[in-house]
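Milestone 3.1: sequence recovery, worked example.
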């Protein structure tokens, strides 16, 4: 499960748009995906315009459209896989440690 911790600043700066996030994130190969990694998609046009958060179990969370809530979708669904561009990560890849700290994630 993906856990968001909003009470402690991480020191990670994440750009606003999906395209900017893809450019700034460290690339992650599909066989190395972990919960919390970002999945970038082209839903329309040539630019990356959609992002989801991988849950670590073959699904991802995303906001499919204005006025709709957060939804869970299967990453292996043909509709999403055909629009998938890349995966990325914004935190250190140190086993179990939060980005920018020496504190072990709980």
């Amino acid at each position: 499960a993906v856990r968001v911790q909003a009470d402690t600043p991480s020191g990670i700066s994440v750009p606003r748009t999906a395209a900017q996030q893809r450019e700034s994130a460290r690339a992650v190969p599909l066989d190395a995906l972990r919960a919390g990694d970002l999945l970038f998609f082209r839903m329309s046009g040539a630019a990356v315009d959609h992002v989801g958060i991988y849950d670590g179990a073959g699904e991802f969370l995303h906001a499919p459209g204005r006025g709709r809530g957060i939804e869970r979708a299967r990453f292996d669904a043909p509709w999403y896989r055909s629009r998938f561009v890349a995966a990325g990560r914004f935190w250190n890849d140190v086993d179990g440690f939060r980005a920018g700290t020496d504190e072990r994630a709980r």
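The chain has two helices and six strands. The longest helix spans residues 18-24.
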